[in-house]
Amino acid sequence: MSSIPQNLQVVHEAIALSAARYDRNPTEIALLAVSKTFGAEQVVQAWQAGQRAFGENYVQEGIDKIAEVQRMLTGQLNVEQPVWHFIGPIQSNKTRAIAENFSWVHSIDREKIATRLSEQRPTTAGELQVCLQVNISGEASKSGVHPDELLALAKHVTQLPNLRLRGLMCVPEASEDEAVQRQAFHQLAQLKQDLQTQGIVVDTLSMGMSADMQAAIAEGSTIVRIGSAIFGKRHYAV
Ligand SMILES: *Cc1c(COP(=O)(O)O)cnc(C)c1O
Fold it and tell me: So what does this one do (predicted)?
C-alpha cells in the first residue's frame, strides 16, 4: 500500500532524476500537489509530509477545502499556511471567489477574466500571481488563449494593478509518446521566450502532470502539477 508521504517522496525523486538527466537545477522545479476530488484530510497528510503548494480546479470545492484545511491546521505550532493555486477553467461569475481565496491562478485565457480578477483582488492580499493558459495543441474543446493572441493578452495583464504576470501554463493533448509530449512543451517554452524578447518579464512555465512530467522538465518546466501520482486515482468524473 502506498501512502501520500511515500508517493510524495517518489515524485520528488522522479523530479530529481529528470532534472539530472536534462541538466536542470532541481530547486528550480516546484511541485504543485493537485488535490481536486480529494479531501482536506489528504491535503493535511501531504502538508505534514512537507508539501506546501496545492492546486484546485473547481471553485466551490476549492474554497470549502481551503477553509477546512485552515481549521485543521489552526492550533498547530506551524503558523505557515498552504499556498493555494487555482488551475481550472474560470467562469466570470466565479472570479471574486478566486481572487479572494487563492494566491496563484494558472488558467487565465481572456482579458475580461484578468480584469475582473484584478478588480476583485483584496488589496490586503497582495498581488495575485498569474499564468496565462495557452491552447498549445489547438484542440477546440480545450481552454486557453490561441498562441496568436497571447502577446496582446500578456500586455493587458501587465497593465493590471493587482495581478503579477508570472508565466505560461498548458495542458497539451494527451499522448504516450514522449517526443510528442516534448514538442508541445517546447512550443510553450518558445512562447515564453517570445514574450521575454518583447520585454515582458516572465519566470514561470507551469507544465507537466503525472503522465508527462519528465517531458515537461526536459523542456524547462518550473512548476509541475501532479495529482494522481501523489493522491491516487480520482474517483469521480472531472
Ligand atoms: C487534474 C489536473 C492536473 C493533475 O493531473 P494528474 O494527471 O492527476 O497528475 C494538473 N493540471 C490540471 C490543469 C489538472 O486539471
Answer: Pyridoxal 5'-phosphate (PLP)-binding protein, which is involved in PLP homeostasis.
Ligand 1 pocket member 85 (CB < 6 A): no
Distance separating alpha carbons of residues 202 and 165, to the nearest angstrom:
7
CA of 210 to the centre of ligand 1 (A): 7
pLDDT tens sequence across 35-61: 999 999 999 999 999 999 999 999 999
Question: What average pLDDT score do residues 140-158 get?
Answer: 93
Task: Evaluate if residue 78 carries a pLDDT over 80.
Answer: no
Average pLDDT (133-159) is: 92
Domain membership of residue 60 as a residue range = 4-231
Q: How far is the CA of 77 from the centre of ligand 1 (A)?
A: 31
Q: Packing angle between helix 4-21 and helix 40-48, nearest 10 degrees?
A: 60
Pocket test for ligand 1, best of 8, 31, 34, 205 (most atoms within 8 A of CB): 34
Residue 236 included in any domain:
no
- The string of pLDDT tens digits covering residues 92-113 is 999 999 999 999 999 999 999 9
The CATH number for 221's domain is 3.20.20.10
The reply to whether 238 falls in a domain is no
Q: In which region does residue 190 sit, left (phi positive, over 0), alpha (psi from -120 to 50) or beta (all else)? A: alpha
Q: Residue written as cell 495557452?
A: 134
- Tell whether 237 is covered by a domain: no
Cα of 206 vs centre of ligand 1, distance in Å, is 11
Backbone angles phi, psi at 110, to 5 degrees: -155, 160
Number of domains in the chain: 1
